[in-house]
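--- STAGE predict ---
source: upstream dedup step, 1 unique chain passed
mode: sequence only
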Amino acid sequence: MPRNMGCCSSGMQSFNATYFDALYECSNDPWGFRSRWYEQRKRSIVLACLDQPLYSRVFEPACANGELAAALAPRCQHLLASDFHTLAVGQAKSRLSVFPHVKVEQRRLPRDWPPGAFDLIVFGEIGYYLDREALRLVLRQSRGALTAGGSFVACHWRPAIEGAVNSGDDVHSVIRAEFAEAPLLSHLEDDFILELWSMDRRSVATREALR
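--- STAGE serialize ---
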């Protein structure tokens, strides 16, 4: 979980690539995605909050070393994971090589937004690194890329992050404004906020004719 980071302007994005260079050169799990119970538990909550058992095409930007993507892989037919950092992409490719339906690419958002439509976009721990203009553009790209029944799930750390452009709560306030509607699901803890928007506004129970 990124808590302390040096940030600088890089086009429309605000982060310092040198900071990530140092992280990935020191460890292939710089935020403890594999080792920390906090991260394992959060990943399980993300998966439990998804509104469909299986998705056709999923996009996860800022995939880091690929731990969440590995958990998402059994829940989809095609998964595109991306990161802007070369070392992260290499580690994610290694981690996800066992999944033939998963593709890992180096992409810098919003400039390198992928083509096509997605049934699910997972926007996790990325909003802090985007200035407001870039964040709004990425959110518009996301909404425009969702299929008719597609979903967008966002999850961010809430405490203050040194040098960050936005807090997690700030990020979700911008998401709510861009989506112009309340999330279908909202999960709030002292540590993180997780929300899901769906183009299908029906509840899961309603979709399965339980109510």
